[in-house]
Write a structure and sequence with these properties.
The protein is an alpha+beta fold and 154 residues long. It has four helices and seven strands.
Length: 154
């Protein structure tokens, strides 16, 4: 199997939109998705882009994506990348796509010398196990917020 993870461009807006709808369906949250392929294309076309995306393709078929925004931590006094979404379609799970997306995301943060953070629903134990397997550590007692400083970059 040929796995490629690459930065998304405005030309990928339709693919990203379909994958985002797949995530929303998986989470039972389709009613909350109002983004359109056109608004995604516009968000990716401005400089700097409003968000960054990676697309994962398995044998040429889009099977996953990661998205993030650059944020500033008031308490830490530094910028960081906040992972908004990580999604892999059901039939591609377990094939290394999620890990490849996370390593590419880590590489993006490392390139700019930034830390990485994300949140996971407290009842999403599968995702928590996945991130822990990659070396991420849970922050706090009650909020599933992750700091990936211990996670290998790239």
């Amino acid at each position: 199997m040929d796995l490629v993870v690459r930065p998304a461009s405005a030309a990928d807006a339709g693919v990203l939109h379909r994958l985002m709808l797949g995530l929303a369906e998986h989470e039972g949250l389709t009613a909350f998705v109002s983004v359109t392929p056109d608004s995604l294309a516009e968000a990716l076309s401005v400089s700097p882009p409003r968000a960054a995306f990676l697309v994962a393709e398995l044998d040429g078929r889009p099977v996953g994506y990661a998205s993030w925004t650059r944020c500033y931590s008031i308490w830490r006094g530094q910028d960081y990348l906040n992972l908004d979404d990580l999604f892999v379609v059901d039939d591609a799970r377990g094939s290394g796509v999620g890990e490849a997306l996370m390593r590419a995301f880590a590489g993006e943060a490392g390139r700019d010398g930034l830390s990485r953070r994300w949140e996971v629903a407290s009842d999403n134990h599968a995702a928590q196990r996945f991130y822990a397997r990659l070396g991420a550590e849970l922050e706090g007692k009650f909020i599933a917020r992750w700091n990936a400083s211990a996670m290998p970059r790239g």
